[in-house]
Amino acid sequence: MSDIHHFRDGKVVLFKRAKSPKWQARLKLPTGKWHRMSTKETDLNDAQEIACDKYDDIRFRTKNNLSILTKQFSNVAQVTIKELREQLHSGYGKVSYTHYIGAIERYLIPFFGNLNVDKIDHKKLHEFDLWRAKKIGRIPKKSTINNHNAALSKIFAVALKNNWIHQFQIPEIKNTGIKSERRPHFTMQEYQQLYRFMREWYEQGRKRKTREIRELLRDYILILVNTGMRHGTETKNLKWRNIEQFVSDEGIQHLRFYVNGKTGKRELVPNTTVIRYLKRIQSRFDDLKDLSLEELFKVDEYVFRTRSGEIPKDWHGSFEILMKDSDLWLDKHDQRRTLYSLRHTYATFKLNAGLEIHTLAVQMGTSVSMIEQHYSHLLPSLNADRIVNFKKNK
């Protein structure tokens, strides 16, 4: 190290490293420690101005009880993403962490990226609300904003842990979204129309790959409607060994699924028809088709694979084509059906059959309040006889 220059009574030091034309700086912090930084300048006067401005900023922050060495939001966000991925890889992270990472990469970094993390205030959060609504094309739902807010809170927590921000500098994060709309499902008549239509539809694909995906999609749909599993989060990691047979207290044999999804690990008991769809998937594989159920449920392979062994990365495109081809794209309220409509159909059928709400909530891995919130509109129809009889008795 050579060519050293001192400023601010020796508390700002400029120097160059070997083979580098740019000036580096060392700044003495109020704690007595030294902070290193690159001025990114080759001219000494320009480098001196940058280093001294940074030193003055540190003194100002110290006097006003602000974080001395803050970070750009994008840098803190990357540290947060790394921590979330490490927790997911270790098996201790929540499934929701994948959604946080997506929110950080698609929304938070593009908007806040160049700001220092301690410069985000209520005004900036309001500007973000407007930008996000424009990007999405509508005011996002509360569930979407909850996901974004949780991701942002993770970033602030990382910044706080590393002393890049003080607690009082973290703004209150509010949810300005709209309540979720009524969730589209299939009526019993529509469901019957769907499964009959799929019997021939899956064979009509032009390419072999398309036919295989449609073939699997048929069973995928039927299993979701008869289990209440969450699409994606609970199905993508389901293996044969995550299924078992058991006998109830009444002596009836059932299946039990062990899934890991949005709310963590849980058990669910599917409708008895599910065994037929599982056996149909089993029959497509030479190494599985002759196994007993006891042997099959010990196999360490994913359930939802095509004949070629492919695990579809995205079902949405094929499902959309199916909905349009079957003329079931829209429900009676002109809402588009999605793969999540299958889970809502399961809940609707179970409520219609008289299943108690608490039991349904446990089976679906959700809360009683969520069941009441999203399916309360069904109660008049489900209790039609009692409502009508009550009026007659009056």
Describe the structure.
The chain folds into three domains: 2-63; 73-169, DNA polymerase, domain 1; 188-385, Intergrase catalytic core (hpI Integrase, Chain A), CATH 1.10.443. It is 48% helix and 10% strand. It is built from 15 helices and seven strands. The protein has helices at residues 44-63, 73-90, 96-112, 122-136, 142-161, 188-201, 208-225, 274-282, 293-296, 316-325, 340-352, 357-364, 368-375, 379-382, 384-393; strands at residues 2-7, 12-16, 23-28, 34-38, 243-247, 253-261, 264-268. Strand 5 and strand 6 form a beta hairpin.
> Could you give the order of the helices and strands?
EEEEHHHHHHHEEEHHHHHHHH
Number of individual domains: 3
Task: Tell how many strands the DSSP assignment holds.
Answer: 7
Low-confidence stretches: 386-394
In this structure, how is the largest beta sheet organized? 4 strands, antiparallel
**CATH architecture term of the largest domain:** Orthogonal Bundle
Molecular shape: elongated
Report strand order across the widest sheet.
1-2-3-4
CATH homology-level superfamily of the largest domain: Intergrase catalytic core
Main CATH class of the largest domain: Mainly Alpha
- What CATH calls the topology of the largest domain is hpI Integrase, Chain A
Q: Hey, roughly how much beta strand do the residues contain?
A: 5-15%
Oligomeric state, counting identical vs distinct chains: single chain
Q: Mean pLDDT across all residues, rounded?
A: 87
